[in-house]
Amino acid sequence: MSYDSDIHSPNHMMVDSQDEMVVQPTQDGNDPVAIIEPDQLDNDADPLENQPLATDFEAMKEIVLPPLLEEPRILEDVVDTWTVEKWRSLPKKEHGPVFYAGGFPWRILLFPFGNNVDQSSVYLEHGFEDANSIPDDWSCCVQFGLVMWNRTDPSLFCHHTAHHRFTKEESDWGFTRFLELRKMFQPSWENSDRPLVENESCNITAYVRIVEDETGVMWHNFQNYDSKKETGYVGLKNQGATCYLNSLLQSLYFTNAFRKAVYQIPTAEDESVNNSAYTLQRLFYQLQISNLAVGTNELTRSFGWDSRHVFEQQDVQELSRKLIERMEERMKGTAAEDALPRMLSGKVKTYVSCIDVDYESSRIEDFWDIQLNVRGIPNLQESFKDYIQQETLDGDNKYWAGDDHKYQDARKGVIFTSFPEVLHLHLKRFEYDIQHDTMMKINDRFEFPETLDLEPFLEKGADNSEPWTYKLHGVLVHQGDLNAGHYYAFLKPSKDGWFYKFDDDKVTKATMRETLEENFGGEYKSSLMQSRSAFSKKPLMRQMNAYMLVYIRSSRLNQVLTEVDQDDCPEHLQKRLDDEAAAKEAKRKEREEQHLFLPVKVITEQTFKHHASTDLTNFDTNPAEDPAAARFYKMKKQATMAELVETVAKDLNQEPREVRLWIMVNRQNKTTRPDQPIMDLRPTIEETYSRSAGTSRDYALRVWAEVADETDEQGNAVWPTYTSNANGVVIKNDLILLFLKYFDIEQQTLEGVGHLYVSKEKKVEELVPIISKKMGWGDKLPAGEQLAMWEEIKPSMIEGLKAKQTLKAAELQDGDIICFQKLPERKSSGEILGKTLRLGDKNSEESLKRWDRFDDAKAFYDFLCHKRQIRFEPHPRSDKVDMEGFELVLSTKATYDQLSERVGEHLKVDPTHIRFFTANASTGAPKAPVRRAGNPTLGQILNPSSYTSQNPQTKSNALFFEVLDMSLAELDTKKSVKVTWLSEGITKEDTFDVLVNKQGHIEDLIEAFAKKAGIKDEREGGRIRIYEIHNHKFFRELVPNYPVLSINDYADVIAERVPEEELGADGRNFIKVIHFQSDPARAHGIPFKFLLKEGEPFSETKKRLEKRTGIKGKAFEKIRFAILRRYDKPSYLTDESVLFEEGGNLEEEASLGLDHLDRTRTTRNGGEMFLK
Question: Residue 1123's domain spans which residues?
Answer without folding.
Answer: 1065-1172
